[in-house]
# Entry
Amino acid sequence: MAAIDKDYCMSSFLTLRAVLKEGVQFSRRHPVNRFIPPKRFSIKSGLDAQRVIKAVVGAAAAGGKAALSLSGGIDNG
# Structure
């Protein structure tokens, strides 16, 4: 059973938007969904970016369903 470590979980979530450490969670009622950071790509041009975005989105939608989350925060101008 996972250990409860609210301080680590909150710090990790606010910093990385994920709890990376194995074996810890916020509470018994709220288990943590594990997140695997995405692979990094070397982008040197706009065409490289387009190629990578097409490949990543294509792979994510290969199962027929995909979702996209866009920030609408105050920092967007």
